[in-house]
Amino acid sequence: MTKSIDKGKNYERYIADKLTDWAGFKIIRTPQSGAWQGTSGDIIPENRERPFIWIIECKKAERWSLEAILLGNCALFSSWLAQMLEEVHSDYVITNTWRLPVLIFSRNRKPDFVCIPVHYVSLLAYGICAPTFIKLNHSSDASYTIVPLDELLTFNSFESFEAFIERYLATSSCQEYFESYKSK
User: Fold this and answer.
1) Where do the H-state alpha helices sit in the chain?
2) Model-level pTM greater than 0.85?
C-alpha cells in the first residue's frame, strides 16, 4: 500500500510541476491528500488567495486501458469519475461556486491524459488549440472527453485559457449543466 500511496503523491507533484511551468505561477500538491483545511482536489495554487477555477484529481495506476475506458468496462476509471464529481459537488456546497472538474491520469511509461466533461469541449474547439479528443459516453448521466495533457498544454497561455473558462462558467448553458448535476 505504501508504494501506491508514494506513487500517487509523486504523480501529484509531477503534474503540479508540469502545470506550474505552463501557468506561470506555483501549483503544489495539496497537503494531506486534499484534506487540507477544506481544500478540494489533489493540486492547488501555492497562493491560496489566487482564484483557481479547477478541481484537479490526479491518478496514477496500472489497472486501466484506453480500450476498457472507451468501452465503459473500467471500474477503476468509473470510481475516479465518481470521486472527481463528488469533490466538485462538495466544493459547491461549501463555496456556492462551481469549478471545472478535471481528472488527470496515467500509468507507467504512458502519456498523461486529461478527462473533462464533454460540456467543456466547446471551450477548446474555437481554434485556440486543436487537441485530439476522444469522446466517451461513460454513464447515462454525462459524457466525457479525454485529451492528451501535452496537447492541452499547447494552449496559448494559462491566463487566456482560464479567462476563457471563466466566461464559459458564467453562461446559462453551463449553469444548466451544473444545476442538473446538483439535483441528482
Assistant:
1) 2-23, 66-70, 75-95, 121-124, 149-152, 158-169, 172-182
2) no
Domain boundaries, position 15: 2-182
For residues 102 and 150, give the distance between their C-alpha atoms in angstroms, rounded to a whole number.
Answer: 15
> The CATH number of the domain where 84 resides is what?
3.40.1350.10
Q: How many domains, the chain?
A: 1
* Residue type present at position 52: F
pLDDT one-digit tens code per residue, 32-79? 754 555 678 899 888 877 777 788 999 999 989 888 888 878 899 989
Using CA atoms, how far apart are residues 42 and 34, in angstroms rounded to an integer?
5
Q: CB of 103 within 8 A of CB of 115?
A: yes
Q: Are 110 and 72 in contact (CB under 8 A)?
A: no
